[in-house]
Specification:
Structural class: alpha/beta
Bound molecules: guanosine-5'-diphosphate, 6-O-phosphoryl inosine monophosphate, magnesium ion
Number of domains: 2
Strand order of the largest sheet: 9-7-5-2-10-1-11-15-19-20
CATH superfamily of the largest domain: Adenylosuccinate Synthetase, subunit A, domain 3
Low-confidence stretches: 439-445
CATH class of the largest domain: Alpha Beta
Distance between the termini: 12 Å
Helix content: 25-40%
Strand content: 15-25%
Largest sheet: 10 strands, mixed
Length: 445
């Protein structure tokens, strides 16, 4: 059929993936998360109503579509139940339209405690004059849960929550070991109570049971029937465990390379990849960011763009658009078209800067990204300066109605990346979207 699409972040997250997934949901039958967990915060605004989604795919607002949490996601059942309830309370249907992989690994309370405790230990090491090795995680237990998955012996999967006896036996061993580890990290709590944990998680399993299934067969059955899939990336390519700015990354393959492993659908089934990119760059948490603006420019972008985290509320670091990074992510993810988000935030600048290369310490110039947090800080951005525009553009409906300088900014990005910008977003609402006049495959046309 050739209609399966992936949506992926090309920067350090929060590019506006939720908005575009909601928009492209209309052209697909199933919307599938393949990575990450409740560290993601995807915002969808429809008719002035705002929804923040963390574990449930952003397609959930379209009740006739099926949403799938794939095996590559780490699921915090308590958070998921909270999210289901808050959607229910707002009249959003979450019933048989949500499927959860029985093979997705569970985020347990001790994962979150471990995440927070390790971050604390690492950041206090900085006070003693050492380098700050804390990552600035969301403290959602993501790293420890994925570590358990890779380590195998001490992990719990969603399907395990449905078998109380099996769960109890596993948790007995796990809790004994985890209690000792938490103690060593300085967490002052009583030893973990495996019986209470079994009770809680088995009961959450029962509540989630109608959704838990073998999603791999569900997806392949759907594909055989000619249905189309929209894959929703969480986090972003520069946070990918293998290809991001290691170690300041998250613990999953958030690039499109994570799709096959995280869903059981081979990569050859992905026909279009929409790379989501802000018109500038942001980052939340620690780690290098070559085009970061610490003064007035960064503050102006943060305030106009309301750049505060959807999950943690932390202020996001802001700076100019880094096209070296975007081109790298587009290459890794196989991007076929770009959605340029939050263009409205840039109104009011006399001049705008685009980073097109890096100058290294020895004076050499490169257009290659450096996916290594130890070496990236040695890169000094090389900028091209373009004229800005003063007009507000939040009501623009087509690309021709944008100010000439905004059109020139977009065209220059297309030239440098070699990719078409098929979607331009000029405000948070679903309606504040300028779509390409030419029908493209990426738009389902
Ligand atoms: P995601 O994690 O990639 O889904 O992005 P987030 O939801 O964390 O952050 C994007 C933020 O930008 C949200 O608050 C959106 O409502 C908002 N947003 C999305 N597109 C636009 C846009 O074009 N203009 C403005 N001003 N805000 C936008
Ligand atoms: P969405 O899907 C922005 C960042 C965290 C931290 C690092 C590791 O909303 O774009 P973790 O809790 O995953 O161990 O944190 O990754 N991070 C994100 N930053 N948006 C996200 O998701 C993120 N998910 C993780 O801030 O620096
Ligand atoms: Mg987000």
């Amino acid at each position: 059929m050739g209609r399966n699409t992936a949506v992926v972040g090309l920067q350090w997250g929060d590019e506006g993936k939720g908005k575009i997934v909601d928009l492209l949901t209309a052209d697909h039958d199933l919307i599938v998360r393949y990575n990450g967990g409740a560290n993601a915060g995807h915002t969808v605004v429809v008719g002035g109503k705002k929804y923040a989604l963390h574990l449930i795919p952003s397609g959930i607002l379209s009740p006739e579509k099926t949403c799938v949490i794939g095996n590559g996601v780490v699921v915090d059942p308590a958070k998921l139940l909270e999210e289901i309830k808050s959607l229910h309370d707002r009249g959003v249907k979450v019933e048989s339209n949500l499927k959860i992989s029985s093979r997705a690994h569970v985020v347990m309370p001790y994962h979150k405690e471990h995440d927070a405790a390790l971050e604390k230990v690492l950041s206090s090491a900085a006070g003693k004059g050492d380098r700050n090795l804390s990552i600035g995680t969301t403290k959602r237990g993501i790293g420890p849960a994925y570590a358990d998955k890779i380590h195998r012996s001490l992990s719990v999967r969603m399907g395990d929550l449905l078998d109380r006896e099996y769960l109890a036996a596993r948790l007995e061993v796990i809790c004994a070991i985890r209690s000792r580890e938490l103690d060593a990290l300085g967490v002052k709590t009583p030893p973990l109570d495996s019986a209470a944990l079994t009770e809680d998680y088995a009961s959450m399993g029962q509540r989630l049971a109608p959704h838990i299934t073998d999603t791999v067969y569900e997806l392949h059955d759907a594909l055989r029937e000619g249905q189309s899939i929209l894959f929703e990336g969480a986090n972003a390519c520069l946070l990918d465990i293998d290809h991001g700015t290691f170690p300041y990354v998250t613990s999953s393959n958030c690039s499109t390379l994570g799709i096959p492993a995280g869903t059981g659908v081979p990569g050859a089934n992905i026909d279009h990849v929409v790379g989501i990119m802000k018109a500038y760059t942001t980052r939340v948490g620690e780690g290098p960011f070559p085009t970061e603006e610490l003064g007035e420019t960064g503050d102006y972008i943060r305030e106009r763009g309301n750049e505060y985290g959807t999950t943690t509320g932390r202020p996001r670091r802001c700076g100019w658009l880094d096209l070296v990074a975007v081109r790298y992510s587009a290459m890794i993810c196989g991007v076929t078209s770009i959605a340029c988000m939050l263009l409205d935030v840039l109104s009011g600048f006399d001049e705008l800067k685009l980073c097109t290369g890096y100058r290294l310490k020895d004076g050499t110039v490169t257009d290659r990204f450096i996916p290594d947090a130890h070496r990236l800080p040695t890169a000094e951005p090389i900028y091209e300066t373009l004229p800005g525009w003063q007009e507000e553009i939040v009501d623009a409906t087509d690309r021709d109605s944008l100010p000439a300088a905004a059109r020139a900014y977009l065209s220059r990005i297309e030239e440098i990346t070699g990719l078409p910008i098929d979607i331009v977003s000029v405000g948070p609402d679903r309606a504040q979207t300028v779509r390409s006049a030419r029908p493209t495959a990426a738009l389902g046309g």
